Sequence to fold (203 residues):
Amino acid sequence: MTDVDKKGPPRFLFLEFLEPEINGLLSGLRKEFSVSKFDHSIHLTVRGPYSGSIPFTEIEKNQNILDTEPLLIHGAGKFDNRDSYVVYIKVHSEALRKIWWKPDFPIEKFGFNPHITLYKGKDEVLADKILLFLQEEQITLACHQARLAPFASKQGELFAYDEIPIEKHFLTLSNNRNVRADILQRAARLISNHRKSLVGEKY
Fold:
């Protein structure tokens, strides 16, 4: 455990994806699939909670390890989360494993499965449709630019206590052979068709 200032709410280190096309794709898919608004940008929580402010040397040390290899975003999964279902896309990296530190969820007990949630809701049928959609798309992205940023938790919400400008999300996938350019339109159509099927069930 790092020697940190004990004042203030618990702190975490988030991993943020800095490549605009990756951020744009993941944010776009999450927006299309979500039944409720997410209160945070696309990220992974990789370390924490810390009981106080996180020294810059701690962030720099882990960032240097993270920078040794790209992050591979590939593969979809689903799990039950109490009264809801979660569908996610996986993130693979040995460097990420090296810096992973979540004492409330130790790898020995909970395993190591870094992922980005794209759907969270009570509709299991929709969750299964989204999972199948992601599996068929076989999205494969290599992210070469990511950063660790400190966030603080207060009353169940997360906010950046050291503000760092984040690039605006764009979606430029025409040159990426692993992603069809119309993926967001097809994701939106999946949701629209599902809603229509629900309306049909009422009559």
Observations:
- The chain has six helices and eight strands.
- The beta strands are 11-17, 44-50, 71-81, 84-92, 115-121, 140-143, 146-154, 157-160.
